[in-house]
Amino acid sequence: MQNNLSSPQALKLLFISTPVGGLGTGLGGGVELSLYNIAKEMLRRGHTVQIVAPSGSLWDEFPIIEIPGNLQIIAQSQERKDPISMPVNSVLGNMWEYARQVQSEYDVIVNFAYDWLPFYLTPFFQTAIAHLVSMGSLSDALDQIIYQVSQAFPHTISFYTPSQGVTFPNLVPPLRYLSSGIDLSQYEFCGKPKNQLAWLGRISPEKALEDAVEVAVKTNIPLKIMGKIQDEEYWQQICSDYPNAPIEYLGFLSTEKMQSVVRECKAVLMTPRWVEAFGNVAIEALACGVPVISYSRGGPSEIIQDGITGFVVEPDSVTGLTDAVSKLDTINRQDCRQQAENDFSLEALGLRFEDWFKAILGRDDSVSRL
Ligand code: UDP
């Protein structure tokens, strides 16, 4: 897809999506929203973007080259020392075979997969590959290949946040921290919430939804739950452990519907057991004027201005969460929206990505700023 504003400076970008699910299914988590926003902003800036994703993708705003094949199992379900595994007729392999065939039509290929294969393939491609690493370190084999790419292909590795990047050993600078950004016009401010809390994201053990449910039980404030059930057994366990909790599961909602619920909540709770790479849901909440209460683990602790736009509490402390809930009246919700506008606009995100691509291609003076 090409924007009419294209100029000689315009880049031709090939985005290769995550192989854990089709775009729009929620299986890819925050990386789906990141890819969507980056594509939208790159097009607005006059670049050409082609998205490649697994068959079954649901977006209709962008033309997507859909590639068949079996999905990759999620990295979070594997042990650190597990060998790399791929299914027969792997969609990851198929997407990168497609990229190999068309690579000469593009300036940069952008890898959104948290998988070993695209890093390994980097030296075999003639077109530059930019890797957006979307999770903290989980696998020794992946750590090693990311290290090797950082050594051999300067500028090509980016993270969301420094607290994510630091989980990877031995990386060779320059490294980039791109943060995230959203289309603020899609999130409406609400100054007067109802007496309810929200929790949103993939329902999977590393997100520890049970801690937010416990907060709902202890404070007796209803909890609205939104997101893809990635681990059905885990969800059923929560339902049977807390049969009388004041919770309501609303399903995996579109951004439009999700923000209409979130904005009427007193706060969004984030309860990561892992180092959260970023936490797109945090900036989506802020954009609605909703404070965020999170464990101090990874991205959210860099995003939240403690005591101003939410509270950062001791990891795994439900008491810390409930204490923070009792202090929510001290937060000015306008400050939350303001932070989203100052720090997480799509325009600012687009500039950071453009700088990154130009640095990889050696076309930009941003290299000397690193
Ligand atoms: N999300 C959504 N609908 C829902 C709940 C969540 O679209 O009902 C999206 C949300 O917008 C966010 C993603 O799910 O982009 C969760 O991403 P996050 O970065 O918070 O965590 P990840 O899943 O990447 O670990």
Gyration radius from CA atoms, angstroms: 20 Å
Largest sheet, in brief, is: 7 strands, parallel
- How much strand? 5-15%
Structural class: alpha/beta
Q: Please give the CATH architecture of the largest domain.
A: 3-Layer(aba) Sandwich
The averaged pLDDT comes out at 95
How would you sum up the global shape? Answer: globular
Uncertain stretches of 5 or more adjacent residues = 366-370
What would the keywords be for this entry?
370 residues, alpha/beta, Rossmann fold, seven-stranded parallel β-sheet, six-stranded parallel β-sheet, 14 helices, disordered C terminus, binds uridine-5'-diphosphate
Overview of the molecule:
By secondary structure, the protein is α/β, with parallel strands linked by helices. The chain folds into 2 domains: 12-181 and 345-361, Glycogen Phosphorylase B (Rossmann fold); 184-343, 3-Layer(aba) Sandwich (Rossmann fold). 36% of the residues lie in helices and 14% in strands. The protein contains 14 helices and 13 strands. It has helices at residues 30-44, 91-102, 116-121, 140-152, 162-165, 209-219, 232-241, 255-262, 280-287, 299-303, 318-326, 333-343, 346-361, 366-369, and strands at 12-16, 48-54, 64-67, 108-111, 128-132, 157-159, 176-177, 197-200, 223-226, 247-249, 267-270, 292-295, 310-313. The strands form 2 sheets. It has a 7-stranded parallel β-sheet, with helices on both faces. Helix 1 packs across helix 13 (346-361), helix 6 (209-219) crosses helix 11 and helix 9 (280-287) packs across helix 12 (333-343). The protein is globular and about 60 Å long. Mean pLDDT is 95; it is low at 366-370. Uridine-5'-diphosphate binds next to helix 1, helix 8 and helix 9.
